[in-house]
Amino acid sequence: MKKLQNTIYVKIFMGICKSCSQLLQTTNINKEEFKQLSQSFMQNAIIGKNILYASSPQELKRYMIFINSMKPYNLVIDGLNVAYAMRTKTEAGSLKPILDIVEEFHKKGQRVLVIGRIHMLWWSKKTMKLIQEKADTFFTKNISEDDPFLLHVTLMSGPQTYFISRDLMRNLKYKLIDPHLKNVFKTWQLSRQYLYKINKHKKTVELIEPISFEMKTQKSEEGWHIPFTCDTKLILPDSYSLPEKWICLKNKK
Ligand SMILES: [Zn+2]
């Protein structure tokens, strides 16, 4: 078994096979699917069946006016998620990692939006001011959910927009009723969501690139790439992490 592992299994890095250097097929959501996903998300995750899942009618109105005049964005940050990741005993949440991300993308000429909750404004006023010089901000009431807004504005900004959060948003995916749209949602999410790690020692945030290629068996003219596992844990269809091992099979020339 050990020998097999060394000879057959390969790693995929940034969508490139380490054995044959082939680039895996990139994620593909067509225009119609993307449009359906955006519309369905608004209907099912934000408005619901006559119920405002996420918010109040007044807040929803304020949000719609805001995004209709301010979109599109290149990047939307889940402010509370990032701020809580670096909380300390003395601090409810830290705005510093948000500022670091904002500055990084602002340098590249990207339009950034930070979605958060109102109580974040009571943290460091100085850091918030620096964030607001380089990014737009939208804060929901403390009792409202902010994740539906985060995903909605990302979708409304177009298929090329990214978002940053460590939350896998499974509860929101399940609000989409159509099984096909649930799959489209996951494919979209994997290719658009930056996850991140917090380096507590250096007090920095390290972004993890979205997975922009199809995480399933791929066939091309040259052969096959098959995700694989040797341990007892199966690769579940609902997995959000990249299978570590792949098999690279090439056609004989
Ligand atoms: Zn290969």
From TrEMBL:
<dbReference type="GO" id="GO:0046872">
    <property type="term" value="F:metal ion binding"/>
</dbReference>
<feature type="domain" description="PRORP">
    <location>
        <begin position="15"/>
        <end position="248"/>
    </location>
</feature>
<keyword id="KW-0479">Metal-binding</keyword>
<dbReference type="GO" id="GO:0001682">
    <property type="term" value="P:tRNA 5'-leader removal"/>
</dbReference>
<dbReference type="InterPro" id="IPR031595">
    <property type="entry name" value="PRORP_C"/>
</dbReference>
<dbReference type="GO" id="GO:0030678">
    <property type="term" value="C:mitochondrial ribonuclease P complex"/>
</dbReference>
<keyword id="KW-0378">Hydrolase</keyword>
<dbReference type="GO" id="GO:0097745">
    <property type="term" value="P:mitochondrial tRNA 5'-end processing"/>
</dbReference>
<protein>
    <submittedName>
        <fullName>Mitochondrial ribonuclease P protein 3 isoform X1</fullName>
    </submittedName>
</protein>
<dbReference type="InterPro" id="IPR033495">
    <property type="entry name" value="MRPP3_PIN_dom"/>
</dbReference>
<comment type="similarity">
    <text>Belongs to the PPR family. P subfamily.</text>
</comment>
<dbReference type="GO" id="GO:0004526">
    <property type="term" value="F:ribonuclease P activity"/>
</dbReference>
<keyword id="KW-0496">Mitochondrion</keyword>
<keyword id="KW-0809">Transit peptide</keyword>
<dbReference type="Pfam" id="PF16953">
    <property type="entry name" value="PRORP"/>
</dbReference>
<keyword id="KW-0862">Zinc</keyword>
